[in-house]
Amino acid sequence: MKVNNSFLKGLIAGIPIGIGYLAVSFAFGIMAVKSGLSPLEALLISMTNLTSAGQVAGTPIIAAGGSFVELAMTQLVINSRYALMSVSLSQKLHGAGFLSRFLIAFGNTDEIFAVSIGEEGGIGKKFFYGLMLFPWLGWSSGTVIGAVAGSALPEIITGSLGVAIYAMLIAVVIPKAKTHLPTALCALFAVALSCGFKYLPILADFAKEYAGFVIIICAVVASAVFALLFPVNEDKEVRENDR
Amino acid sequence: MTVSPTFWLYLAVMAGTTYLIRLIPLQLFKRKMKNRFVFSFLYYVPYAVLSAMIVPAVFYETGSIISASVGFVVASAVAFFGKSLPVVAACSCLSVFICEAVRQYLL
Fold first, then answer.
1. Domain range holding B87?
2. Which residues of chain B lie closer than 8 angstroms to A227, CB-CB?
């Protein structure tokens, strides 16, 4: 089997991801400062987490002085998709030993994963190291630029850029929802639950008390229901759609 | 440029959790998942999580529900037609900017 283990090829494949991350993390930087963190704190979060959705959900919890359990649980549920991706990535990797996997794990984001899986044949650790470098640099530098310059920009600009982070999440959900009907229905079901926690009086009271758990509950309920009703066939649906 | 002392603890919890989620399966599961329910559940989780995060939060992000709705619809449409992440984000931002400019300066 062909194994791509070129650091340079990985580096090149990572450039578009890095540019995309620069723009999106700019919005995260703005958001983090808006919720009360310092630019340095925002930068530290981006440098050590390298995850969009988890950071967007975790930052308000930190800013509000929430509990550590709430923070860890939120990360666990929102980032649980990485567990699935790591399982797939694990099978794609060739010649990556125990130690190298400690570094590879850190770089397994949605987009880096998508590029890795899209490679023909297997990938080696050097390719992956190259692939994760620009995205990490873009994500970190974009955050600090957004956090510092965001406050100097007029609100109309920051408001417009703030939507970028949601646009990016939309860009992850829609392509899969388009090709796999149960995924679309599951997404709609999760949306209905999340709207319930916002607009139904009894649930909204609960949501005020346990803000960090709302997303977890919506996701676990929707995923469990759909895993029972429409179990997916690993090879057929997931692999094709991940390309 | 300040970092509060409790922030370091938060950072360790947040980064540690995120990292372990990525690391543990990468070290443990070198074979395919066998249990169909577990696999299916893990398959649906990202889409359920992201969808619940997007709606209704996105509608309160831009200063008016109208511009946010436009940004949401534009992002969904551009993503539907298979455009890449930076393109989806740029189109959505631009549409919100135009809406807000019209709302604030022309209406």
1. 5-106
2. 37, 40-41, 43-44
C-beta atoms of A198 and B72 within 8 A: no
Give the residue, A187 or A115, on which the prediction is more confident. A187
* Chain A residues close to B73, C-beta within 8 Å: none
- Of A137, A172, A207, which closes a domain? A172
Query: Which residues in chain A have their CB less than 8 angstroms from residue B82's CB?
Result: 175
Taking CA–CA distances from A241, the nearest residue in chain B reads B43
In whole angstroms, what is the distance from residue B26 CA to residue A112 CA?
A: 15
Residue ending a domain, choose from A128, A143, A172: A172
CB-based contacts of A122, cutoff 8 Å, min separation 6: A1, A2, A3, A4, A92, A93, A94
> What residues in B contact A223, CB-CB < 8 Å?
41-42, 44-45, 48
ipTM score:
0.85
Residue A48 at interface with chain B, using a CB cutoff of 8 Å: yes
Range of the domain at A141: 3-172
User: Is the same domain home to A114 and A232?
Assistant: no
DSSP state of A237: I
How confident is the model at residue A137, as a pLDDT? 97
Higher pLDDT, A207 or B80: B80
* Interface contact flag, B79 A56, Cβ < 8 Å: no
Q: How many structural domains comprise chain B?
A: 1
pTM: 0.74
A71-96 tens-digit pLDDT: 998 898 888 878 878 887 887 898 88
A9, A120 contact by CB (below 8 A):
no
Query: Structure tokens of A79?
Result: 């980032």
How far is it, in rounded angstroms, from Cα B82 to Cα A125? 29
**B52, A219: Cβ pair inside 8 Å?**
yes
Angstroms from A116 CA to nearest CA on chain B: 14
Q: Do A167 and B93 touch (CB under 8 A)?
A: yes
- Residue A114 CB burial class (10 angstroms; 0-12, 13-18, ≥19): middle
Specify the number of domains making up chain A: 2
